[in-house]
Amino acid sequence: MAGKRRAEPAFRQRALVPVLVFLGTVVAVISSLGAPLVPTIAVVDHISLADAQWSLTITLLVGALATPVMGRLGDGPHRRRVILGAAAVVLAGSVLAALPLGFGFLVAGRGLQGVGLGLVPLAIATARDALPAERSRSAVAMLSITTVAGVGLGYPLTGLITQSMGMHAGFWFGAIISALALLGAALVVPHAHGREQRPLDGPGAVLLGAGLAGVLLSLSEGDAWGWTSAGTLGLGLVGLLLLGLWVGHELRTDHPLIDLRTLRNPVVLTADVSGLIAGVAMYMLISMVTRFVQTPSSAGYGFGASIVVAGLVLLPFSVASVFSSKLAPLLARRTSTMMVLPIGSAISLLSMLMFLVARGSLWELFVIMAVAGLGVGCTFAVMPGLIVNAVPAHETGSAISFNQVLRTVGYSTGSVLSAVVLESHTPTGQLLPDSGGYQVAAWLGVAVWAVTAVVTIVLPRRGRSARTGVGTVVSVDEELLMDESIADAETAEDSVTAAPVQADR
């Protein structure tokens, strides 16, 4: 029995990263289930496309609300319980969405699935605490891109299953992989020993949740309600006002839901701002490409492809983003960690330019999405690592969760921007935009990626100047190395504290 107990931690160490990566991939795949299925849901449940869109909107909305709360709870001693509880909720939601009980139950199930969006930040925090420094850095990079790679996997899988076996089969597939993820997490996710339990900032959670709900709902439903309608504008303004009140509250309270003071660190600020803007540009391209591929050739462009083919076009995006987890460390060694962000933005900008000039055949779109995956993957691969190394260990879950929330807002904004531009170039009485709409949307995407690249260069330098003044100049990379040393020291201290407990286990 004693030998068995000694072998168990080694098994957990070996299995932890694959299980966490699988958990993150499952979350990404499930969250993307709604987008390809919206037209099918509308037909099966005899509802409008606008109503069917709620099967996607509710997931993003619940995820944006749950992620920061889960991140703060996960920074305490109950991280394992939060992970397993959230995974169980996702499984329950998957089963509820799969059962043929009607649209209301499907939306409820999709809402429960949205809780899973808060699992990736907790997986990153777990990897930081439970793994040696070198392994944790590569694991954090891989976990960060699961949210990107999962989208490219979810679309073709969903399309193939739905086309072959029907709409509900896609959700049953989500239930099966959710159950496997829950089982794996139960077996290997360790307890977070030595973590101080802090009170949850209830007022902050309410203000942030209501503010995000207002902004995301106005973005998601603006097309159906009308972008200049009183409902859309009023809801968006109220959301922004509540977010402003939330910022003031967080800066005053002793135990904030998200410690916004960490944004004074130029590394954290750069990762968060670039995550928001890059999320906009990423979803602009994904939305344009999937719509372009399915457009009938009678429109003068497009390929009239099925949902399966449209999903397959995104597959190179996923493959390249996974490969970027190996490329990003190489770029960091050859240049610097902070330089990976503008390099990734430049590669992504190139993909937008390619879409501008070369989209006449399917193979060109496959190449474009591979280039985009490489750029986006490099950009997102380093963001959590930068944050992890720049904040105290007890703030990891909360800080990564905030970055995830900003990405979610960026995704919604990017999807909306592409839709608005294409709608503005749709002739009166027609259903499809003219080809010029894609040109304008692509140029806008180029501009967004250019802004992202500039932000990733300028913000660290401005932060460095503000912090060093006229004294000794300290580079951002030297500053990051110092933060890594502090983080490693904290990890080592936590390991020493937890050693007796692990030995007992």
Task: Write a structural description.
The protein has 19 helices and no strands. The radius of gyration is 22 Å and the shape is globular. With 505 residues, it is mainly alpha-helical. The chain has one domain (2-200, 257-504): Growth Hormone, Chain: A. Helix 8 (133-165) runs antiparallel to helix 13 (307-313), helix 15 (340-357) runs antiparallel to helix 16 (362-390) and helix 17 packs antiparallel against helix 18. It has helices spanning 2-31, 34-44, 49-52, 54-74, 79-98, 103-114, 119-130, 133-165, 167-188, 202-225, 230-252, 266-294, 307-313, 315-334, 340-357, 362-390, 396-424, 435-468, 476-504. The longest helix has 34 residues, at 435-468. The model is unreliable at 1-8 and 465-505 (pLDDT under 50).
Shape assignment: globular
State the total count of DSSP E strands: 0
How far from one another are the termini? 11 Å
Number of domains: 1
Task: Please state the average pLDDT score.
Answer: 80
State the major sheet.
none
Rg over C-alpha atoms, rounded to the nearest angstrom = 22 Å
| Estimated helix fraction | over 70%
Low-confidence stretches: 1-8, 465-505
CATH superfamily: MFS general substrate transporter like domains
List the main descriptive attributes of the protein structure presented here:
505 residues, mainly alpha, Growth Hormone, Chain: A, globular
Detail the topology: elements first, then pairings.
Blueprint lengths: L1 H30 L2 H11 L4 H4 L1 H21 L4 H20 L4 H12 L4 H12 L2 H33 L1 H22 L13 H24 L4 H23 L13 H29 L12 H7 L1 H20 L5 H18 L4 H29 L5 H29 L10 H34 L7 H29 L1
Helix pairs in contact: 1-7, 1-8, 1-9, 4-6, 4-7, 4-10, 4-17, 5-6, 5-7, 5-9, 7-8, 7-17, 8-9, 8-13, 8-14, 8-16, 10-11, 10-17, 12-13, 12-15, 12-16, 12-17, 12-18, 14-16, 15-16, 15-18, 16-19, 17-18
